[in-house]
Amino acid sequence: MATWKTLTTQDSASPLMEQLLFFHDHALMILLMITVMVGYIMLTLFFNKFNYRFLLEGQTIEMIWTILPAIILIFIAMPSLQLLYLLDEVNNPIVTVKSIGHQWYWSYEYNDFKKVEFDSFMIPKNETSEINFRLLDVDNRMAVPYNSQIRMLVTAADVLHSWTIPALSVKIDATPGRLNQVSFMLNRTGIFFGQCSEICGANHSFMPIVMESISIDYFMKWISKMSEI
Predict the structure, then answer these.
(1) Fewest CB within 10 angstroms: 4, 168, 195, 216, which?
(2) Which tens digit of pLDDT belongs to each residue from 31-41?
């Protein structure tokens, strides 16, 4: 979760988010090299007095500054396209969770098991305790096993919503009458926070998402407990 002093990106919790962070660093290094080179050239132009009155054309330099940016763009585009296709890939999910966006809360359904359904409301400010995060915690957390492929089916019951958890690189629109699909895998345990990132009405800011990543054993115990409710 991002805090006040967090100046960098959040720590990744999934292999895909790790790859996105690597791509971010890769693109940033290319940008830094271009900025330093262009800055150095501009600085030298300010402070030298070279001139060449017979210069009419420079086909060689024009070829260089046409081809070089094209090569740089290829170095950015290839890993970007690879990631784009990897984000849409669904590989034999172990657990399927259906998330339904409402004004202004989320509902979750675990249809692989005995009718496990529950609503997830934000904990009101006056009921928040020391262990809860203000405006970020919910009364019923979603739980998934780590090191397992998870498939999320996302839809909405009323207006457009967006199910978003930054640490997982997941942002998927919840659209009424449409079922969108996303796949991810958590590589560590923890509690991950997100929010609806689609303006969906007056209380759009107050429908947080909390996902708890636990071991398979604890997940099966949690499912058994939830199915008895």
Answers:
(1) 4
(2) 999 999 999 99
